Please model this.
Amino acid sequence: MPVKTMRNRLIATAFLGLFVSGPTFAAEPTAYERTMSGITASAATSKSEHDRLWNLFDEYWANKMREYPEWATSVGFPGQNGRWTDMSMAAIERRKKELTAPLEALKSIDRSKLAKDDQLNYDLFDYGLKMSLKESQFPNELMPINQLQGVQEAPANTLVQNPQNTLKDYEDIISRLRGISISVDQSIELMKVGVSKGITPPQITLRDVAQQIQNQIVDEPMKSPLLEAFKKFPEDFSAEEKKRLTETAASVYTNSIKPAYQKLHAYFSQEYLPKTRTSLACSDLPNGKEWYAFNIHQITTTDLTPAQIHERGLQEVKRIRGEMDKLIAETGFKGSFADFSKYLRTDQKFFYTNAEELLAGYRDIAKRVDPQLMKQFGKLPRLQYGVEPIPAFNEKSQPTAYYRPGSLQFGRAGMFLANTYNVGTRPKWEMEALTLHEAVPGHHLQIAISQELEKVPDFRKHEGYTAFVEGWGLYAESLGHDMDMYKDPYSRYGQLTYEMWRAIRLVLDTGIHSMGWSRQQAIDFFKENSSKSEHDITVEVDRYIVWPGQATAYKIGQMFIRDLRLDAKKDLGERFDVRDFHDVVLRNGAVPLDVLKTQITEWVDSKRKQANAK
Model:
């Protein structure tokens, strides 16, 4: 999963509560608003429009990093590693009040006086600001906890990204440990407001959350996943420093963190869960139909309606099912599609026997992919990546895998996190496609290249568009055919299974949230058209329920990139170079799909002109 929203899961957690509908605000400007007003006023000075634009970008990004320190840690922005996002109602209301300030500053800049590259920066900045303003009417922050994210898992996932090199780094970690109890209290307050307004996640999806919270409550502090950093120190730390830091962390856990999670567990189990809604659809929430329509628009960066997406999904399911049936026949298997699916789910030759073997299998695949990348790309990132298991404290409710971005600034590699829970449900035949999606040439390659872009503002390097990011991840799976992967029919079937999985998402997401589908109806449709395990299917369906619209991004984006490639190859014929095509797709970072189409069209036109000039 990423990166599984427009930003990755960690970043999405940091952004919970960014917007909330609230009371009328006082007219007194905040410090940030005054900074933005200064940029607007600078129109009367001799500063160039380029300088004013980049001043706006710098101030905007610095403010983002102050407001969302978890994101700052993720991207390697210094100075914020000892803090958590302020999720108090006052802070949320202030951030809402400040939403229009950068838009007003941007309007004061004359776009026509900017160079072409800056015009793209201007347009993407404008797009993002307006999308945020539209989003502000939908109070996502009133649902701060679900089975995929929340204060029961976000702190541990952030702390593993904290630098761990100096005494200051460890003091920052301790500072964050001290702040967890405040984050818990703020989450409880948001949940209480959500209950009062009838805005909660569906109850059925929250069945594992109490245990996730309980997993953070241990008798021995050093067994807490929050204190991982204190189990191994840099070699130059003295014995006294190690002892002091460890004892301090353990004391904070015992006296602050543990009681906070005990409080959260009691509130969640006894008060919150019984009051959560029994309906599933986003459309059942206040203003829910408009909420879901906005999610679809934001996530796909298109104007497709839920009905149109549903129909495209049905068409893709039918097409891919035909390809799967052909491949089943090629294997010589005698029996129905259901029989073959059962065979793939149950025959022990398709499974490893323990977590260590499973991880070794993923690492072996990654090593085989790496040398093939030069065949498909002219530019590769410097940032390295690794493979690790999803943390045990929340693995049961997590998807098969996801990617966690790294940071060159902090010297932290990107990480492909694989789920090792219940190894008997993790078949070998899906592992190649999954590695291509989450690591290379999928999320790691695309996101790392974006992070390493030069002469672009920081928001371009680190903000994303889900249809582009996840569309690229799914498209990357198909590149295995050109990279000497998928050598046996079962791995090829695994790639089709994963493509089918994303086509099914188009049907189920829209079915659940706009067409009245039941949870069991969604599970049954998934089973009928996929060979994935029942555990994976259940986890996936519950994910679509709590993240309305997000799952539509993958297939919409993949089909868009695939069609751009087919059209470019048709137009250019022998002049088409797949390495050039991929470099053009990735060279500007994540962008809305219509912007990507413009960029590919300009590249094709330039190739034609070069050919005609010879």
Remarks:
- The longest helix spans residues 239-275.
- Residues 139-286 form one domain.
- The two ends are 46 Å apart (CA to CA).
- DSSP finds 25 helices and three strands in the chain.
